[in-house]
Amino acid sequence: NGTDSFSYTVSDGNGGTDTATVNVTVVNVAIIYVHVDTGPTASILIWDDTTGGWAIDLDTQKLVDGTNHATSESIDVVAGHYYFVWVEAPNNTFQVLMSPCGWVISSAPVGDSEAAYGYAATGYMNPVIHPVHFTIE
To answer: 120 pairs with which residues across the strands?
Structure first.
């Protein structure tokens, strides 16, 4: 995460040259992989607790919904944010069976459902996959 730059010079072969500088900003991205053990009909919802809103996929710029999402079950989230990940299954209950190292099981920010709650961190230029597993009962 950070900024960098490099300069280059081009030559036309006849003595003419030009120099330019390219500035690069690197933004770290983590990936949350959500797996529903039963029932692909359930929506996978991601809540960004840092901004207090639904997570937006960085590639598609759409709200994250695992059922109808363009990137299927794997979504990009902003590194350094806290996220709730849970399954919306009307008239059903579910329990979080597994969450990434450092995540905790907690109540969701809306409703009474359980959720996996954690920090989406990633190393420089090394996105990390965070798996979260659910069972729909």
So the answer is: 81
**pLDDT-based confidence at residue 28 (cuts at 50, 70, 90):** low
What are the boundaries of each domain within the chain?
28-136
Beta-bridge partner residues of 83: 48, 118
> What token pair was written down for 33?
């992989």
Contact 92, 101 (CB under 8 A): no
The tens digit of pLDDT for each residue in 95-137 reads: 566 666 666 666 555 555 556 666 665 555 555 566 666 655 5
Largest CA distance in the chain: 76
What's the CATH code, domain 28-136?
Answer: 2.60.40
Burial of 40 (0-12, 13-18, 19+ CB in 10 A): exposed
